[in-house]
Write a structure and sequence with these properties.
Elements lengths: L1 H21 L3 E7 L2 E5 L2 E4 L11 E4 L4 E6 L4 E4 L4 E9 L5 E15 L10 E7 L2 E5 L3 E7 L3 E9 L1 E4 L7 E3 L4 E6 L8 E2 L8 E3 L5 E3 L4 E13 L2 E13 L6 E4 L2 E4 L2
Parallel strand pairs: 8-9
Antiparallel strand pairs: 1-5, 2-3, 2-4, 4-7, 5-6, 6-8, 7-8, 8-11, 9-10, 10-13, 11-12, 12-15, 13-14, 15-16, 17-18, 19-20, 21-22
C-alpha cells in the first residue's frame, strides 16, 4: 500500500512539472506585418502563435504592430520601425516570472495588469535605450529610444527608473509622469504630461473636464460601484445635460467612423 501511494505521488509530481513547463515564457499573440524574428543568425517572418526564446530579436517595419504575451499574463506591444531583444526569461520555482526586454530603437509598451485579479510576482526589466525600468508588480508604461533621446512615460502602476548618469534610481508611481534623458546626458527632472494640451475644455461639475467640440455632454455623480471580475461598474445620477445642435454626432460601425446622413 505504501509503495502504491508513493508511486501515485511520484506520478502526480511529474504531471505537475510537465504542466508547468508546458507554459511558454512568451508567445507572439498578435502580428500585423511586416514583422520579423531573428534567431541564431537567421531572420524569419514573425507570425502569431510563435514561441519566443531568450536572445530572440523582434523587428517591425512601416505600419507594423506586435503584441507578445508573457507567461505571467503581462504583455509588451511594439510599434512600427522598432527593434526589441528578449532576454533572461524564466519561471522561477517560487512562482516569480522574470524577463528582460531591450528596446534598441522605436517604441514599446509594457502592460502587466490587464487581466489580473490578484497580485502576481514578477521581475521584469525593460531597457529603453540607456534608461532601465524595473517592474516588480503592476505597471503600464510606454517608452521610446532613438539616437537623440530616450523617454519612459508611466500610464499606471509603479516602476523604478535608472540611468548610467543618474545620481540615484527614481520611483515613478504617479500616472502621466515622464522620465527623459538626452543621449550622453543625465536624466531631466520628472515631467507631467498635459493630457488636454491643445484641446478646448472647461471645468464641469466636480472639476471634470467638458470638451467644447462635443454634440452632447452628461455631468453625473457616482451613486454606487460594483466590482465585476476585472471590471468596475459605476451607476451614476445625471445632474446636468447640455447639447450643441449644430454639431452632428460621430458614429462607429463595422470597423469605421461615419456620420448620420
Amino acid at each position: 500500500m505504501k509503495a502504491t501511494t508513493k508511486s501515485v505521488w511520484v506520478i502526480l509530481g511529474l504531471l505537475t512539472a510537465l504542466t508547468a513547463e508546458a507554459v511558454p515564457n512568451a508567445l507572439a499573440e498578435m502580428v500585423q506585418s511586416p514583422a520579423w524574428i531573428e534567431r541564431a543568425g537567421k531572420r524569419l517572418p514573425l507570425a502569431a502563435g510563435m514561441e519566443l526564446i531568450n536572445r530572440d530579436k523582434l523587428l517591425t517595419g512601416e505600419g507594423a504592430r506586435v503584441v507578445v504575451r508573457f507567461a505571467d499574463g503581462s504583455a509588451f506591444k511594439m510599434g512600427d520601425n522598432s527593434l526589441v531583444a528578449v532576454n533572461a526569461m524564466q519561471q522561477r520555482k517560487n512562482g516569480t516570472f522574470a524577463g528582460g526586454l531591450d528596446l534598441k530603437s522605436g517604441d514599446l509598451r509594457l502592460v502587466s495588469h490587464e487581466y489580473e485579479e490578484a497580485p502576481v510576482n514578477r521581475a521584469i526589466n525593460v531597457r529603453f535605450g540607456d534608461v532601465t525600468a524595473a517592474v516588480r508588480g503592476e505597471a503600464d508604461l510606454t517608452g521610446t529610444a532613438d539616437d537623440v533621446r530616450d523617454a519612459v512615460a508611466l500610464r499606471d502602476g509603479r516602476a523604478v527608473l535608472n540611468h548610467p548618469l543618474a545620481a540615484a534610481p527614481t520611483t515613478m508611481d504617479v500616472p502621466l509622469l515622464v522620465y527623459e534623458a538626452a543621449k550622453g546626458q543625465a536624466p531631466e527632472p520628472l515631467k507631467s504630461i498635459d493630457r488636454f494640451a491643445g484641446v478646448q475644455w472647461q471645468a464641469g461639475a466636480g472639476g471634470a473636464p467638458l470638451f467644447r467640440a462635443c454634440c452632447a455632454t452628461f455631468e453625473v455623480a457616482n451613486e454606487t460601484m460594483h466590482v465585476a471580475g476585472d471590471h468596475t461598474i459605476f451607476v451614476s445620477r445625471v445632474e446636468k445635460f447640455s447639447e450643441s445642435i449644430e454639431l452632428a454626432p460621430l458614429l462607429f460601425h463595422a470597423g469605421q467612423y461615419a456620420r448620420i446622413a
